[in-house]
Amino acid sequence: MNTSAGASFTDLYQLTMLQAYFDAGMEETAVFEFFVRNLPPQRGFLVAAGLEQVLEYLENLRFTAEELQWIADSGRFSTEFVDYLAGFRFTGDVHAMPEGTVFFTNEPAVRVTAPIPQAQLVESRLINLLHLQTMIASKAVRSVLAAPGKLLVDFGMRRAHGAEAALLAARASYIAGFGGTATVPGAMQFGIPLYGTMAHSFILAHDSETEAFENFARSQPDNVTLLIDTYDTEAAAHKVVELAPRLNARGIAIRAVRLDSGDLAGHARKVRAILDAGGLHSVRIFSSGNLDEYRLRDLLAAGAPIDGFGVGTHLDTSSDAPFLDCVYKLQEYAGRPRRKRSEGKATWPGRKQVYRRYDADGRMVQDVLSLEDDPQDGVALLEPVMRAGARLQPPARLDELRARTAAQLQSLPPHLRQLGTEPPYPVVIAPAVQELASLVDEQCR
Amino acid sequence: MNTSAGASFTDLYQLTMLQAYFDAGMEETAVFEFFVRNLPPQRGFLVAAGLEQVLEYLENLRFTAEELQWIADSGRFSTEFVDYLAGFRFTGDVHAMPEGTVFFTNEPAVRVTAPIPQAQLVESRLINLLHLQTMIASKAVRSVLAAPGKLLVDFGMRRAHGAEAALLAARASYIAGFGGTATVPGAMQFGIPLYGTMAHSFILAHDSETEAFENFARSQPDNVTLLIDTYDTEAAAHKVVELAPRLNARGIAIRAVRLDSGDLAGHARKVRAILDAGGLHSVRIFSSGNLDEYRLRDLLAAGAPIDGFGVGTHLDTSSDAPFLDCVYKLQEYAGRPRRKRSEGKATWPGRKQVYRRYDADGRMVQDVLSLEDDPQDGVALLEPVMRAGARLQPPARLDELRARTAAQLQSLPPHLRQLGTEPPYPVVIAPAVQELASLVDEQCR
Q1: Do both B251 and B296 map to the same domain?
Q2: Is A238 found in the same domain as A164?
Q3: Which of A156, A201, A378, B265 suits a disulfide with A312, CB 3.0-4.6 Å?
Q4: Which residues of A touch B157 (CB under 8 A)?
Q5: pTM of the full predicted structure?
């Protein structure tokens, strides 16, 4: 299995359209915008992410010799077209909201301006990349908001949808404010802090729990988090208390215990009491097992003495909203605004910009969706990030993106910070956009 | 971004456990089984898929020089351990249900028998691969059952969770009985039939719909499916009728029209009437747009004259069940059965086999979960597929896997074929398994 995702990683219809554009000599400038039509019912806002991987994809876009051969052999395309694809590059411009920016329906998070074959071909992969990380970042911030100040770790690799989803979920959740990931390539490729110690199988492979704890502690003396729910959680906590002095004599400190099943709040309270009675006040309690933002909120509301959480499946699959209604639509071609009018799926035409207005306390109060040449009060959210196929800035550092996300969360209206969805945040469609839509409808039949 | 997923594509805890096994000299044989603890509420059965990618992964498992360097530089592991990883290979045995096999809770779909470090390390990626394709195949068969005889095409790449999810969703849905995919690498890598013609942007980029239709038809004369919902569906159908003779004069036949929005059943009826009145009886109607098995069933129940369906987002994300409660658990180590007893997550110990019983008509009636050395009546579902790290058979052909899936669906109890979930299919736990569990509980504290 070849998991590289280059120029041929697309839907067939992009290639058949490109053949038709090629045959008709259509290569004028197109403007496409990526936006979300409707929010999932459980989301009051979204967090833009994935731009870095899009820019990397666009910069490196080319068909390999193997891909060209396959396209030629498919019998679907002309020889001249295949020759043309051999020299195919992305030479366009990109405007985008920086990763970590909060955004809402109808607001373009990315705008691509390029000769139509280029802007068209990239649709499938561009959506694929932006959708995944935006979905995950938008899910991850909910745990961040539900458990302020707690260590949150991405545990989701195994049930993420494939390798790339796991890798990019680690990245998106870190941008969103998670403290790290269990996914090794997340550290190898992005420098994300790594967390992980032992599974139940490690305990089960030993003849006794205490032996398993001790073997692990001697092997990983700087990383001692002991999993204590394999047989009986409280009994295991007592074993930890008994073991601690022996390890201490060797200079090894137990850092934490992990709970992974049962009534987590109840176990955490009992385990905290056992640890404290044994003098292990500094040993933290870490918890995992089917967690999401709702369970985090409930556990903390119940006063559970838990210091950190591993959030896995529900994060990496965005289980309550496993997709976004996001699209990438042609808004202008050859200098003329364009507009799809399909029932329930009509779009706003033209090159657009989003302006965000704040109150005196720095809280977001309203966005305005406007045309690029019709500036409004407020902060413009879309910035130029690529010109003529070349990036305008080096890749953003993840710590900068984390800081931006944190600042954006800070400026959210209180009910959105509390994971509410009503009332919806106001996004005003500027009069010029509405007028342009009417004009396009009259002209284009 | 490096999207290859080799030995280091794992959770950190696999590596820390391996260091501890290494330090303790633990390398005896372990038996792990992959199974599903609970079905999602919307699923009455699952379809095993992903084994081929697991075997490929196991056969090629090794740490690259770059990975070893990263592991060494991380400061978490001993030099001796890193040297040991340099020679690390998978030398174990694998038993598995062939892809396309229907299975249920508690039934091991894959069993790995190997020295514990090997069987342990592969956990994260093995689950990741089996989970994704099993989830997608189990979703895809629902559309196959809901729309018998109809052409079904995977349209989900853009909102699949990353590139690998898109690629493997194309494979899993094809195994499940879909007719093809829109995802180009699905054809390049797996030979899956490809479908695709045009998007709305193609229509919008032209000054008129008819011009767009005509340009496309001339460019792709053997692949003329026209998208007719960009402005007004019925008006576009009339344009198709007008265009047909002009194309016919050039030897080009319109194969189909595609509807992508609005009341699909209503539009399909009107469009069918317009096409028929225009003599275009052979032009098929293909439909897409937010489809899943429930909408397919409703459309067909309403008598909508639709000949084929593009199923996208809901398929590729398995939107109503975006994860399975699947695990990979240690069942035996060093010749002794093992059993986790965590609350709500206890497992059945020992090396197990699944026996399936059929009635005289070839319908499945009951499965028995037994120990490998305690054979039962019925057909044994787990087969040896890898020995000492080498495959026992060449990779299965996708058409064989499709045929197996189709036969399995045929043998399902009627209520499961109709997408019902009650009563649950009976999986009997053999007495010897239950006795072994009690025995393990007594021995292991």
Answers
A1: yes
A2: yes
A3: A156
A4: 10-11, 124, 128
A5: 0.97
Residues B154, B245: one domain? yes
Task: Give A129's contacts in chain B (Cβ within 8 Å).
Answer: 162
Q: What is the pLDDT of residue B347?
A: 87
B30, B261, B445 ranked by CB distance to A345: nearest? B261
DSSP 8-state class, residue B108? -
Q: Is A54 part of any domain?
A: yes
Q: Do A200 and B340 touch (CB under 8 A)?
A: yes
Contacts of B26 in chain A (CB under 8 A): 205
Residue B2: its pLDDT value, please? 66
* Nearest residue, CB atoms, A197 vs list B16, B32, B162: B16
Q: A325 with A417, same domain?
A: yes
Long-range contacts of A111-114 (CB under 8 A, 24+ apart): A111/A31, A111/A32, A111/A33, A111/A34, A111/A351, A111/A352, A111/A382, A112/A30, A112/A31, A112/A32, A112/A33, A112/A34, A112/A328, A113/A29, A113/A30, A113/A31, A113/A351, A114/A29, A114/A30, A114/A90
* Minimal Cβ distance to B163: which of A5, A32, A445: A5
Smallest CA–CA separation between B433 and chain A, in Å? Answer: 18
Look at residue B442 in the predicted model and tell me its pLDDT. 84
Residue where one domain finishes, among candidates A261, A286, A316:
A316
Decide if B208 and A445 are in contact by the 8 Å CB cutoff: yes
Q: How many domains does chain A have?
A: 2
**Residues sharing a CB contact under 8 Å with residue A407, sequence separation 6 or more, in sequence order:** none
Q: In what order do the strands lie in the sheet with B93-96?
A: B336-337, B326-333, B29-36, B110-115, B93-96, B383-387, B390-391
So what's the ipTM on this one?
A: 0.97
Q: Is B229 in contact with A4 (Cβ distance < 8 A)?
A: no
Domain boundary among B296, B316, B336: B316
Quickly state the pLDDT bin for B340 (edges 50, 70, 90): confident
* Per-residue model confidence as pLDDT tens digits over A71-99: 999 999 999 999 999 999 999 999 999 99
Q: What is the CATH number of the domain that holds B162?
A: 3.20.20.70
Q: Is B220 in the same domain as B350? A: no
Contacts of A343 in chain B (CB under 8 A): 229, 261-263
Residue A352 has pLDDT above 70, yes or no: yes
Residue A340 in any domain: the answer is yes
Say whether both A414 and A326 belong to one domain. yes
Q: What is the mean pLDDT of residues A373-387?
A: 97
Residues in chain A within 8 Å Cβ distance of B6 = none
Domain ranges, residue A277: 147-316
Would you say residue B444 has pLDDT above 80? no
Q: Is A334 within a domain?
A: yes
